[in-house]
Amino acid sequence: MNLSRLVVLGLLESGGPQHGHEIRRQAERSNVQAWGGVSIGALHRELRTMETQDLVEAVRTEQVGRRPVRTVYRITEDGRTELHTLREKAISQLHFGPDPLGVALLFGRVRDRAEMLALLAGRREVLAVSRDGVAAECRRLTEQGLITAFDAAMFRRREMQLDAELRWLEQFEKDVAEIRHSGPAADAERAEPADQPTEEKP
């Protein structure tokens, strides 16, 4: 999934002809690199690539004062078709990214229960701060009239994702705390016994 391409084509379709700097500025304002995994630095490169593929086309150049000359692009009909395809895939298909927490819990087993609970408590605090921060930012932008109802819905989606992760973590902490034994010995007790060779009786 080429998310850089989706961002550029989407901004050109919704906002009309723009130059690469304006596209980059809008992407930076949305902080899409942090929550969407879109490389801001790749947007200019993607714009030039799409020009060679006739997905966008240059319509004019602009220069303000001594600033560099900038090329203004617009989306083509082929670009709209590409945008439709990318948008459909992004919305209808499930996409899962790397999961450091899952890898750490499954392979980097913490044998000491107290250490595990301390690590989980620290993560819980970070999640709570992040969730509350997203909610506060949404309220601030809404009150100032800087975002639409659709934008606010995206904030609420992120808030609910963080809240769901927080609730799972709280339950997992309870599960860990209720384990009677912790450590290699407990793992050995819970593991199924391996088949042992038996001596043949004469």
UniProtKB/TrEMBL annotation:
<dbReference type="InterPro" id="IPR036390">
    <property type="entry name" value="WH_DNA-bd_sf"/>
</dbReference>
<dbReference type="InterPro" id="IPR036388">
    <property type="entry name" value="WH-like_DNA-bd_sf"/>
</dbReference>
<protein>
    <submittedName>
        <fullName>PadR family transcriptional regulator</fullName>
    </submittedName>
</protein>
<dbReference type="Pfam" id="PF03551">
    <property type="entry name" value="PadR"/>
</dbReference>
<dbReference type="InterPro" id="IPR005149">
    <property type="entry name" value="Tscrpt_reg_PadR_N"/>
</dbReference>
<feature type="domain" description="Transcription regulator PadR N-terminal">
    <location>
        <begin position="8"/>
        <end position="84"/>
    </location>
</feature>
<feature type="region of interest" description="Disordered">
    <location>
        <begin position="179"/>
        <end position="202"/>
    </location>
</feature>
